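Chain A, query sequence.
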Amino acid sequence: MSDPDLTIEGNGGELILNGGDLLVGNGLLTATVLSLWGGNLEDDGLPGSDSVQFWGNNIGQDPNESLRSETQRLLTSIPATSSNLLRVQDAIVRDLSWMIDEEIVKEYEIEIALTGVKRIGITINFTVNGETYELQFTREWTGQV
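Chain A, predicted structure.
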């Protein structure tokens, strides 16, 4: 099955166009984008913030399928420092863990680095059916001290 590819631009998701047609992929890009940046920016992922979570999480959905990105929350709430890189990497691992649990991917490796002032580069190499797929993201890290 093919899914439209989705990326994050500015403050929201964007479908990717190729010459006026939707770019369609294997779903890995879209699943990753929604896992890392899906949900509501005001949602910190903790039980006390249930009222501000993404509205789609309240439509009789399995709680394990909710969009409550810890990665997104950290990049908007903690300062962009080398000492916080490990916290963000751990959040990425947790946000993507469902892919292994659901056997969508066999494994993944994550590399992250500060690429500029308040910018983070994230590279994820997924192994799916013996093939490796690399996804790269560069995002603003807007958290404050």
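The longest helix spans residues 85-101. The two ends are 44 Å apart (CA to CA).
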